Amino acid sequence: MNDATQTPVCFGPGNALMGMLTAPAQQAPGDVACLMFNMGANHRVGPRRINVKLAHVLAARGVSSLRFDLGGIGDSDALDTSPDLQARAVHSLRAAMDASERMLGARQFVIVGMCSGVEHAMLAAAADPRVVALSLFDGFAFPERRARWERNVRRALAAPAHPSFPGKAKRWLQRHLLPSHSTTPLPGFFAEKRTPEVNAAWFGATLRHLVERQVAVQLLYSGSLHVCDHGRDQLGAFARQPFTQALQYEFIAEADHTVCTEQGQRLFLQSVGDWVADRCFGASTERRSQNRPMAAGADRAMPATLAAP
After folding, report:
1. How many Å is the Cα radius of gyration of the chain?
2. What are the tens digits of pLDDT across the range 152-169?
3. Model-level pTM greater than 0.85?
4. Which of these, 228, 206, 225, 202, lies nearest to 217 by C-alpha position?
């Protein structure tokens, strides 16, 4: 694209992490940069390459971004051997901030997290004061009884017409009626380590802390799986808490969880692109003009690798 430069970079201890830096081609990097990373075990490009598209949208608005694979995922080697997945993700995110600070002179960061990445983003923001904003898509949701009832009715009405219904019905019957099919949860990624109550307590406490620290938060939810929304339904009881009134909440009924459709992608990119750009220039003390000199040590032709810290 003519309005952006893209440079592959290796960074972190031992240059273990791999990413792609996208920067505006005709102006100096700003003081605030955006970080994007994996959705679950997917590659850093995101579902349907949505992170790539978002990086181009942001570059056209003067915002630099780094999309990268967390340690041990995609093209990145393991950054450390900690058994805690969340701790390893925070280490990778902080290494990405350090790298962007050295390359771009960025001092503050907006993190875009999707699905399981929402928890990683929140943990990194709680641990590092350089994070000034979070855009979180389809992360934690706490629909109450009426919202759950409406969702289940919608699913029940739609299920028989779905091509996957016969197979799913058969597997459900096997699991619940045949003794040869164990109902014991599988280890690892297939076992939920925390109860919904523990998740809710952690989410509420962490979000309150971030809001009190004046971290801007955008919560986006899709209409996947017949989800409905009537006034912040996905926040449940948290919608009535005073601290959540400072959040930007948006339900995009036309989008699905993996932004498959053209309309869903367009709405996602418009919402997140606008919000991130506003946060980047709002958090910065001064928006750099196209004629302003670049920060010392930052070249338009950026190096392909970064020295390990």
Report:
1. 21
2. 888 788 777 767 678 777
3. no
4. 206
